[in-house]
Each structure stands twice: as structure tokens, then as C-alpha cells.
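re: that chain from earlier
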Amino acid sequence: MASTLAPLAALLLLLATAAAAAGSCPDREAKADFDQTAFMGTWYMQKVVQTPGYANTKCNHLKASLGENDEITLNIMYYNTTSSKDTHVVATLRKADAAAADAKYTYYREGVFSHDKTSFKIVNTDYTGYAVVSFCDLQRDLNTVFLLTRKRSPAEDEMKAAEAALPADLTYVTQDQADCPEHDH
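^ sequence. v structure.
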């Protein structure tokens, strides 16, 4: 009897471990000593770990601006290739720990991401050329990393420097930034 229960116990332990792992975001470190003011401005998405939300989009970019209480407002624009329409959404980043100097935030978008389980971390940035962002929402099973640059079409050497900052354990797709309109946010 004991020999019959051992495989069952091992299977239950394996399932419990897998369930616990599935219920957490990757442990990517947020940039320490983050300078919010230097991060403000326009950013263009160049690479992304493909998730359904980015599959039919192009011209993804955002404008970050400082809001009240150290919040960051993101005006996000992209072209939806399925509907053939420009889309504009507004999101708010709130410090995960108000006393911390790191770049760890909670992402809020009215009616869509309105809980404390959506993680938005700026993992790496040089502020003037690139930023690497980790985005994870457990309720929607979203987990991605994207590369932002200050230029819509960076030079090859600038792009290589930016790509070097990406986590190497993931597979990225290039976001289409060709023939995109310039927007006033």
C-alpha cells in the first residue's frame, strides 16, 4: 500500500509546485535608483515577447508623463491591423512601494487592469536610448518583456546596444514601426 501511495504523493507534490509557479510573475529585478524624470517622454516599442495582445498591432509607442503622487501616466498609441484603426489608451503606473527608489510599479487601466496584481517593472534603461520593461498580469495570464527606444527607427548600432540589455532567456519578435503617423498625445 505504501509503495502505491508514494507515486501518487510525488504526483500531487509536482502538481502543487507547478500550480504555485504558474501563479507568480517572473522574478525580474527592477532598476534600482530609478530616475522618473529622466524616463519621461516618448518611447517606441521595438521588440516584444509575443502575446495575443500584440499580435495584430504596429506603430506601438507611448508617452510617459509625471502625474500626482509620483504616479506615471502612460498615453499608449498603436495601430490595430485587424480593425485598421488607431487606438489610444491611458494607463497609470503607481509605485509598488512608495518608499523604494526602484522602478517597480503596478499598472492600472480603468476597467481593464484595476487591481494590484499587474506588475510593470522597468528592468533596465539608459534613459536616452532604450528601456526594457517586464509586464505581468496574473489574472489575464499575460507575461511579456518589451524593448522600447527613444527613436522610432534607431540606427543599427543603437539597436544592438538596446538589444544587449534584453533578458537572453526569451524569444522576441520585432514590432513594425514602418509607415507610422506621428501623434500628438
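Confidence is low (pLDDT under 50) at residues 1-21.
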